[in-house]
């Protein structure tokens, strides 16, 4: 053994000596290349591929063993992979997750409790409209579903119904009250709006709309009932009547019903007698609940026409006659193949012929005037007299507004501020007492007028 060791040492020393001598025999540039070679910090294992192969081991087998051992560390006793826990979450993140879970669980619990509450039996006192004794009980799923469905529909109907049951305040007292109420649509009847990329929105007034509103305001309580939202239509209404002299009230989309995707104007909520109310609207679905109160008319597309002017004689006739209910008269005109304005012209011409014939018979029957040679007196037809008075009143009102319109508008604004200051209109008073009625406002204005005279 000692001999073997000594021989091994001797052979190793010879090899080292040979290598050192060979290194000294190298050229200078080659020797310097070893000196200037960059040192790498990478770790190289002594166990290279040759040594491992001689030992009977393979590097791929070692890597696969390491990988399998790492995978086994994350497997349970059934061979299923374990879920690694993320232990890097902060306490704030954990609180957020906890609160989110509580939030969703509370919503789920509230929804279940709300559905259970909506499935309760009908109350004969509090729910008179829906009460049905046959639908009470929990013995049948259909009864429970009917109660739930009706109550859910009652909740959604709040968004499809008008905000108030009385859309207009009480009528004015008798000296200031108009005989009839005229409800007018805004879009495609009085104005027409168009839009393009260059100029944007443009709104045009229908020919004769100023004369139509000004002339009929002496006979009718004019109400603009637009199916557009208040945010878009209010500015247009104020430009149609800048002095607040013609249009009495304005209603918008918020006062309409919504049914099957259609907008409906319920005239029964206007707080007016339906026998004294007329609506003009180009959309038939808007007055589908009270078609007997409507005057049909085509949509205006922005072209020149005289349809509004042609309607004035008929509307003037209705307002100046002692009519208790306008609905039978409107239905008699609708039965004709002509439109209402054309049919009224035909009937008026017949009345005029009868009037002329009657006047001629009266003149011929008066023998005394014929013997004396006195020319017969020609009397005006009542419609002509009414029309002359109406036109004169319109001219007087037009000239008065032209001279004093701005002054009246400023006085109205000042009186409104003073009235609100005197009433001390607060949020609490609005909730408890509501807005002042038209009669209250008229009384206050009359009292203020008396004070001014004194």
From TrEMBL:
Which GO cellular component terms, listed alphabetically, does the Swiss-Prot or TrEMBL entry include?
TIM23 mitochondrial import inner membrane translocase complex
UniProt KW keywords: Membrane, Mitochondrion, Mitochondrion inner membrane, Protein transport, Transit peptide, Translocation, Transmembrane, Transmembrane helix, Transport
State the source organism's domain of life.
Eukaryota
- Where composition is biased (Basic and acidic residues), the residues are 61-75
Localisation per UniProt entry:
Mitochondrion inner membrane
- Annotated membrane topology: Single-pass membrane protein
- Kindly state the subunit structure of this protein: Component of the TIM23 complex.
- Mind telling me what this protein is named? Mitochondrial import inner membrane translocase subunit TIM50
């Amino acid at each position: 053994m000692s001999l073997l060791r000594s021989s091994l040492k001797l052979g190793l020393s010879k090899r080292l000596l040979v290598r050192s001598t060979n290194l000294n025999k190298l050229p200078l540039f080659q020797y310097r290349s070893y000196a200037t070679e960059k040192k790498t910090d990478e770790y190289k294992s002594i166990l290279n591929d040759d040594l491992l192969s001689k030992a009977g081991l393979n590097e791929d087998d070692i890597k696969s063993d390491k990988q399998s051992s790492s995978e086994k560390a994350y497997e349970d006793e059934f061979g299923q992979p374990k879920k690694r826990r993320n232990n890097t979450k902060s306490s704030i993140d954990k609180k957020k997750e906890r609160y989110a879970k509580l939030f969703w669980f509370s919503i789920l619990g509230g929804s279940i409790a709300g559905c259970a509450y909506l499935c309760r039996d009908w109350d004969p006192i509090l729910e008179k409209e829906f009460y049905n004794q046959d639908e009470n009980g929990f013995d049948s799923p259909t009864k429970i579903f009917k109660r739930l469905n009706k109550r859910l529909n009652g909740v959604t109907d709040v968004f499809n119904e008008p905000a108030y049951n009385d859309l207009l305040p009480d009528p004015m007292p008798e000296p200031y009250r108009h005989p009839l109420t005229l409800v007018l649509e805004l879009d495609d009847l009085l104005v027409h709006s168009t839009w393009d990329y260059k100029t944007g929105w443009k709104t045009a007034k229908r020919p004769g709309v100023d004369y139509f509103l000004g002339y009929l305001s002496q006979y009718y309580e004019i109400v603009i009932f637009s199916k557009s939202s208040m945010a878009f239509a209010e500015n247009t209404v104020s430009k149609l009547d800048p002095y607040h002299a013609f249009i009495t009230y304005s209603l918008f989309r918020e006062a309409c019903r919504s049914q099957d995707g259609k907008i409906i104007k319920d005239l029964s909520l206007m707080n007016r007698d339906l026998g004294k109310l007329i609506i003009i609207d180009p959309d038939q679905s808007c007055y589908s609940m009270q078609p007997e109160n409507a005057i049909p008319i085509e949509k205006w597309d922005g072209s020149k026409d005289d349809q509004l002017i042609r309607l004035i004689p008929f509307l003037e006739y209705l307002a100046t006659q002692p009519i208790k209910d306008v609905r039978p008269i409107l239905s008699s005109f609708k039965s004709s193949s002509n439109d209402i304005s054309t049919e009224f012209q035909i009937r008026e011409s017949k009345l005029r012929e009868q009037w002329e014939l009657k006047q001629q018979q009266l003149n011929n029957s008066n023998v005394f005037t014929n013997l004396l040679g006195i020319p017969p007196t020609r009397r005006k037809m009542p419609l002509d007299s009414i029309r002359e008075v109406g036109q004169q009143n319109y001219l007087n009102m037009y000239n008065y507004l032209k001279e004093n319109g701005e002054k009246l508008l400023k006085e109205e604004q000042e009186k409104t501020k003073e009235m609100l200051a005197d009433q001390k209109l607060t949020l609490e008073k609005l909730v408890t007492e509501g807005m002042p009625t038209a009669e209250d406002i008229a009384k206050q204005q009359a009292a203020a007028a008396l004070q001014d005279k004194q």
